Amino acid sequence: MLKYVIKRILLMFVTFFIIATMCFVLIKLLPLPNAKAQGRDINLVLEKRKQMGYDKPILTQYAIYWKNIFNFGSNGSKGWSPDFGIGEQMYISQSVFDVIKEKLPYTIVVNLYSILIAVPIGVLLGIYAALRKNRWQDHFVSTAVMLVVSVPSYVYAFLVQYFLCFKTGWFPLTVASRETATFFSWVMFVSMFPAVLSLCFGTIARLCRFTRAELSEVLTGDYLLLARTKGLTKNQAITRHALRNAMVPILPMILGEFIGILSGSLIIEGIFGIPGIGKLYITSIQLRDYNFFMALTFFYTLIGLVANLVVDLSYGFIDPRIKMGAK
């Protein structure tokens, strides 16, 4: 097991390095955008470009880029202080790492709220549909799930924004600032709820469909009939055997949703004006800010790879019968 885990982690880093290299080379092949002149900031931008080797070959620039990232204790700071460069087209002359560190909590909080709400609702709806299989309840839930899955999340965002924020006025159109409320305060939760609700629809639908399919298959197993013949009631057989076996593939999916949810709010953050890294990533692509684009590409790539790794490894921990790496 340990050998398999180490192998997967090494493979993850190799994959990450390949993706990072491709993104860096491709972005550097594009024309270099002009640095915005805002007073003396233009001098700092040009100096930083020289330090990062913008006038050198691409591979030399790439080596300098990694050297700056793993530069421990740079700028007089203690510990690891990665240097991803400074903003050139947005947040001009500000440290890319500091800006991302400031905005990351907004993305984490809004996605954390959405996953905490969506997981129990999605799993319970899936269990309910499986227990009412081929009845009108099952048909109703399955049809609703298909409709939700077929519609993009930003469509729900516009509907939520129109009905809950504009027409009824129950929720504000924008998220509360950190000066007026803390991240886990009631005021912040109310202001984030429209965005949280928009993110919940897709997660609820996916979990419901997956749970319903897994539990429906488990309920037809021969061992449940054997459990009933031994004297267990229907509810006891479902609780003690069916649900436990159905959770084996469901729990890894929940773990993957929990980690990978960070990459799902790119458009939602822009719609609701959440100052998170999702909106920052979209803006960096539009304005061709190389430094912000590369740093955020690193982040989202690593999140996706970690999510896949956690899902794969969780099978072995949840179900000891699954031997990871066994031939």
Describe the structure.
The chain has 327 residues and is mainly alpha-helical. It has a domain at 98-318: Orthogonal Bundle (MetI-like fold), CATH 1.10.3720. The protein contains twelve helices and no strands. The protein has helices at residues 2-29, 41-51, 58-69, 96-131, 136-150, 153-167, 186-219, 222-229, 234-260, 266-272, 277-287, 290-318. The chain starts with a helix and ends in a 9-residue tail after the last helix. The mean pLDDT is 81.
Walk me through the topology:
Elements (H helix, E strand, L loop, with lengths): L1 H28 L11 H11 L6 H12 L26 H36 L4 H15 L2 H15 L18 H34 L2 H8 L4 H27 L5 H7 L4 H11 L2 H29 L9
Give keywords:
327 residues, mainly alpha, MetI-like fold, globular
CATH architecture heading of one domain: Orthogonal Bundle
**Stretches where pLDDT falls below 50 for ≥5 residues?**
none
Count, helices: 12
Structural class per helix/strand content? mainly alpha
**Helicity, as a percent range:** over 70%
Q: What is the CATH superfamily label of one domain?
A: MetI-like
Percent of residues in beta strands: under 5%
CATH fold title of one domain = MetI-like fold
Cα-based radius of gyration, to the nearest Å:
24 Å
Amino-to-carboxy terminus distance: 12 Å
Secondary-structure element order, N to C: HHHHHHHHHHHH
What is the oligomeric state here? Answer: single chain
Mean pLDDT value: 81
Highest-level CATH class of one domain:
Mainly Alpha
- Beta strands, count: 0
User: How would you describe the shape?
Assistant: globular
Characterize the biggest β-sheet: none
